[in-house]
Amino acid sequence: MVARVSVFGQGHGTAKGGSPMARVAAYKVCWPPVAGDECFDADILAAFDLAIHDGVDVLSLSLGGSASTFFKDSVAIGSFHAAKHGIVVVCSAGNSGPADATAENLAPWHVTVAASTMDRQFPTYVFLGNNITFKGESLSATILAPKFYPIIKATDAKLASARAEDAVLCQNGTLDPNKVKGKIVVCLRGINARVDKGEQAFLAGAVGMVLANDKTTGNEIIADPHVLPASHINFTDGSAVFTYINSTKFPVAYITHPKTQLDTKPAPFMAAFSSKGPNTIVPEILKPDITAPGVSVIAAYTEAQGPTNQVFDKRRIPFNSVSGTSMSCPHVSGIVGLLRALYPTWSPAAIKSAIMTTATTLDNEVEPLLNATDGKATPFSYGAGHVQPNRAMDPGLVYDTTIDDYLNFLCALGYNATQISVFTEGPYQCRKKFSLLNLNYPSITVPKLSGSVTVTRRLKSVGSPGTYIAHVQNPHGITISVKPSILKFKNVGEEKSFKVTFKAMQGKATNNYVFGKLIWSDGKHYVTSPIVVKALLTRN
């Protein structure tokens, strides 16, 4: 444990790992870019080989590429072999949100993690000359002298040679130092890195920067270690700042130094950057699987680079605040490490199920999880929900999945013997009839419901004896029946099957994805699975 950690004096506390007593083996797979690529398949597979040989318990992969068929996907291939050796593989979902169908690392045998906020902020306030104040966030180290400074839009501060659409984003080489010097510049979020915008403003002579969200990033504000006093504000507040500048002859502003604020509400909510489902390779498997803290996460940092990663940034700090699914993935890896220590005989699928079926879809105001634009988030954003580590210690029941289940799943995808041999290291006799819908997964997704369909699942007892009753929250326009609706478990390891039948209701179902839940409960445990359905409606 590392005492007295902070980032430029903010977020004071003691830093510790997710699995505090675990040993860490690191395998370097990403290198300086060659033709734009940094993480090559050969290196990724070599690292999986080494890690399996070394006998690791958990593999945390904060990397990803565009989604591809599993037999061409090095993470899917490597993680399959790792799962065969009992290793749990945890991956990032990607940072290409908030658009749909952007999630990466889509194979069912690893855990795919989205990113959400935590109940800590680093507020810094923007005071305007009209007595209006806006709350933003930042981890700037420098302090502005307490007085008003002229504030200018980046488009009004552009070089004559620069395009307005580049200047509004404070892109490299767009700002005119003669117009910027001594002023606070307002930059719009998007395209180039947030910290790069601050650097461009600083190099042009600005004393501060207001970074305003665009519509898609909404309320997601991130505390970055900017090279100048800065405040990152949401879309609504940003619009008000632009309005003030446009309607005032001599607009002025001041940016306060950041502070640390705890117990903020609502939290968590989904990060706008977090990649989303549906799964573009196998729509029958919901991805991401889970969400975890991934915004303004403080952790140990290399001193080979400055905190903004910009060449220009000569500062060096031992701990930094970073955002991304690269930050949320290791949170889940740490939890997996603890579960692996508690339950050394559990399969990777059982550990994954424990994490998913105990997650929450409510925030700290006991309201449904929101996305960054204040709308209600769906399982395409958060999978089963926000991780709850202590609940995962006692899931009651798990959806266990065998390697043969996964191989039958590959057969059902239509893979030929050569393609399957990438996963098996030998011939595999495919089961004649296996539906993708019936993979024993902790979530249930029916992407093409025509009339009615029945899916099968198996539950295994990992807790005390109990009688579990099925409760269903029906998706809009869909009726769901569970048979049997009562399961009695006497012994640990006992496994029971059940069937779930989906029917689209005439006149009520729509062509859109709709969401519900299946909950098995004995009064103490609530084994919860997200349900995702899209009805195929035919016009008469």
> Which CATH C-level class of the largest domain is it?
Alpha Beta
Low-confidence sequence ranges? none
DSSP helix fraction: 10-25%
Bin the strand percentage.
25-35%
**CATH-level-2 architecture of the largest domain:** 3-Layer(aba) Sandwich
Provide the residue-averaged pLDDT: 94
GO biological process, one term: proteolysis
Pfam family, one: Peptidase_S8
Keywords: Apoplast, Glycoprotein, Hydrolase, Protease, Secreted, Serine protease, Signal
Subcellular location: Secreted, Extracellular space, Apoplast
Overview in brief:
The chain folds into three domains: 2-118 and 266-394, 3-Layer(aba) Sandwich (Rossmann fold); 123-255, Glucose Oxidase, domain 1 (3-Layer(bba) Sandwich), CATH 3.50.30.30; 439-535, Immunoglobulin-like, CATH 2.60.40.2310.
